[in-house]
Amino acid sequence: MKARLRSPSLFLTFAGAFLGVLIIGAVLQGVVVVHIVGAVREHFERGSAEALAEQVALEIGQALTASAQAEIARVLDGYPTRPDSFLLAYRDPDGAIVLPTRLRRRMAFAVRMLLSTQTDLELGPLRPPLAEERDT
């Protein structure tokens, strides 16, 4: 007959099981809280970004009706810039991208490159159509 492994005490067995369940419960609770808080934060930021975009669009429209050479960058500078969550940009009819002036050079370059190559499947290209595309 083989000797069985024995726990030194029944107390340590129950304490170890309790500690294991406690750790697993804490990890699961942390994961659930992070997902819920992340979803709530995303919903809040999306709503505030949409409201801010509408407000900026209205102000840009007013600036363009007042003057054909409106300073769009100054309008964009009047609003907060948060490159980690959303960034305001304007594309004029000629296809030039206007960004806030306080944006860092590298970030502005990266955003211009991204916007000049990115297309939206529902709305078509984000750049104005070329002459060849307009004719077809």
DSSP E strands, number: 4
Broad structural category: mainly alpha
Radius of gyration: 28 Å
Percent of residues in helices comes to 55-70%
In one word, what is the shape? rod-shaped
- Give, in spatial order, the strands making up the sheet with the most strands: 1-2
H/E element string? HHEEHEEH
Please indicate the percent range of residues in DSSP E strands (runs of 2 or more). 5-15%
The biggest beta sheet is recorded as: 2 strands, antiparallel
Low-confidence stretches: 120-128
Mean pLDDT: 78
- What is the distance, rounded to the nearest whole angstrom, between the alpha carbons of the first and last residues? 89 Å
Walk me through what this model shows.
- By secondary structure, this protein is mainly α.
- It is built from four helices and four strands.
- The strands form two sheets. The chain has a two-stranded antiparallel sheet with strand order 1-2. The chain has a two-stranded antiparallel ribbon with strand order 3-4.
- The chain is rod-shaped and about 90 Å long.
- The protein starts with 9 loop residues before the first helix and ends with a helix.
Layout of SSEs?
Layout: H1 10-66, H2 72-77, E1 90-91, E2 97-98, H3 105-117, E3 119-120, E4 124-125, H4 131-135
Antiparallel strand pairs: 1-2, 3-4
Brief account:
This protein is mainly alpha-helical.
